TrEMBL record:
InterPro entries: DnaJ_domain, HscB, HscB_C_sf, HscB_oligo_C, J_dom_sf. The keyword Chaperone applies. It comes from Shewanella mangrovi. Co-chaperone involved in the maturation of iron-sulfur cluster-containing proteins. Seems to help targeting proteins to be folded toward HscA. This is Co-chaperone protein HscB homolog. One of its GO terms (biological process) is [2Fe-2S] cluster assembly. HAMAP family: HscB. NCBIfam families: hscB (TIGR00714), PRK05014.1 (NF003449). One of its GO terms (molecular function) is protein-folding chaperone binding. Belongs to the HscB family. Keywords: Chaperone. It comes from the Bacteria. Interacts with HscA and stimulates its ATPase activity.
């Protein structure tokens, strides 16, 4: 299923989330199962299925990582259940530094260091996201493979961010 077609949006990484939300509400109005309360069982099941499809499409397109995965899937690259890791040595070294910083913050409870690390994560994600947007706009195999690596990096960064949030929550409790 091409969710961009479902929402009548161009298949690009840069999505107008406000427009996406508007189209989501419009689609929900037409397909909501309550509208089919007096319909046949088959029509009710189709409405439920269509609503689930609309919900999944909305969740996919509003999340940058899932949106990028969807765009890559449309180009024949499946990332959702893969086990391949990033082979970028500098990124692997950076991962180790970030993990050590998380451990240090967890032990010390240093709020300033936690804030500093959070800014570092945010800047890195912004840089990767910008590069990803450019790569996804290209239509060649090398750019697509590089885009897949960028998505893998963003997925890793999301896990690091979640870990940092858990540490910060524990510090502020």
């Amino acid at each position: 299923m091409n969710y961009f077609e479902l929402f009548n949006l161009p298949a690009t990484f840069d999505v107008d989330v406000a427009e996406l939300s508007t189209r989501y509400r419009e689609l929900q109005k037409t397909a909501h199962p309550d509208r089919f309360a007096n319909a046949s069982e088959q029509q009710k099941l189709l409405a439920v299925s269509r609503t689930a499809q609309i919900n999944d499409g909305f969740q996919t397109l509003k999340d940058p990582i899932r949106r990028a995965e969807h765009l890559l899937e449309m180009k024949g690259v499946e990332l959702q259940n893969e086990t391949q890791t990033v082979k970028d040595t500098s990124f692997l070294m950076q991962q180790m530094e970030w993990r050590e910083a998380l451990e240090d913050i967890s032990r010390s409870g240093d709020e300033d260091e936690a804030d500093k690390l959070e800014r570092s994560f945010k800047q890195y994600r912004a840089d990767i996201t910008h590069a990803l947007q450019d790569l996804l706009a290209k239509d060649d195999v090398a750019a697509t493979q590089s885009a897949a690596d960028h998505v893998r990096k963003l997925k890793f960064m999301a896990k690091l961010q979640d870990e940092l949030v858990r540490i910060q929550d524990a510090m502020y409790d």
